[in-house]
Amino acid sequence: MKHKPLYTGGLLRLTPLDIEKDAPVVSGWSYQPDVVAQMTQSRMNPMTVGEVRKVMEGWKKDAENSGHTFVMSLRPLSEERLLGLFWMTYVQWVHGAGQINLVIGDAQDWDAFASEALDLALNYAFDELNLFRVTVRIAEDDSPACNLYQQAQFYLEVRQRQAIFRDGRYIDRLTYGMLRPEWELFRSQEVA
Q1: 118 exposed, middle or buried (CB, 10 Å; 0-12, 13-18, 19+)?
Q2: Which of 4, 22, 65, 190 is surrounded by the most beta carbons within 10 Å?
Q3: Which helix (H) or strand (E) holds 19?
Q4: Mean pLDDT in residue range 44-51
């Protein structure tokens, strides 16, 4: 089986968080409700740079101490610009399972890079962490994310009816999942 480079793709690379440089960028994203909804399901207000730093410091501390969280930045190969964040959470080693979280701060960047960002995330989850199952939880009204995971052949596994209250209405939370054999099949079809 051919292995792809772990931290680089054709256009993107995974890098460590640089809290000082990345926090102001993420703070700017927090004024976009759709992006904030991808980052958190509880906080829907803009965040100061200081608040974002605290959140990122918490992520890094959790990653260092728990062994169940892995956090990285997404950057173009040729630039230092932060265009997104990727983190694996709730890694359960005994079950070989974890949850993918993928945030890209700009709609144009999402269109250009989301597919490759997901490919890097899956490569990291299955090849590096040796997981058997990955899941992702998104709001039903997040059409770009729903399309991304469906095109990558994730299966809709759970629909939590009216689990998220946003913009004065209740919407469903969707959980998509992918197993290692499904990923291997999907990856082999991409190469062919």
Answers
A1: buried
A2: 22
A3: helix 19-29
A4: 85
pLDDT of residue 3: 57
pTM of the model: 0.90
Separation of CA 81 from chain center: 17
Yes or no: is domain 13-191 CATH 3.40.630.30?
A: yes
pLDDT in tens, 28-41: 998 887 777 777 65
Q: Residue 179: enclosing H or E segment and its boundaries?
A: strand 169-179
DSSP string across 58-95 = HHHHHHHHHSS-EEEEEEETT-----EEEEEEEEETTT
Give the DSSP letter of residue 155.
E
φ, ψ (nearest 5 deg) of residue 151: -65, -30
Question: Sign of the CA dihedral 88, 64, 38, 9?
Answer: negative
pLDDT band at 186 (very low <50, low <70, confident <90, very high): confident
